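Researcher: Please predict.
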Amino acid sequence: MPETTPPHPFPRAVRDALRSVFARVYLAACALLLIWALVVSRADNPDASFAGVVPLLATAPLSLILLVLPDHAAMLYVAIGTGALVNALLIGWCARALRRGPRHPR
């Protein structure tokens, strides 16, 4: 009989964390901020150059760390997307832990 390895718990943890309403709202807000920044940066106004800072700050700290990677226009989107995903996972994990409540040994 072939041995079957149990499924890795990491994908399940990610799926459970992203089921949280709070994590989904955060991801939607980050997507809207990115779209807003793209639209505003195309406009001809004096504050357009700072529009990209808003989604970076919303997805900090990981997005700020990833921003120093290779200088390419796509790295801004990778930094914001990765930062948003990691923060959403943390939000979902915290929401799930709070929903479960404290665990008291008896």
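Model: The chain has five helices and no strands.
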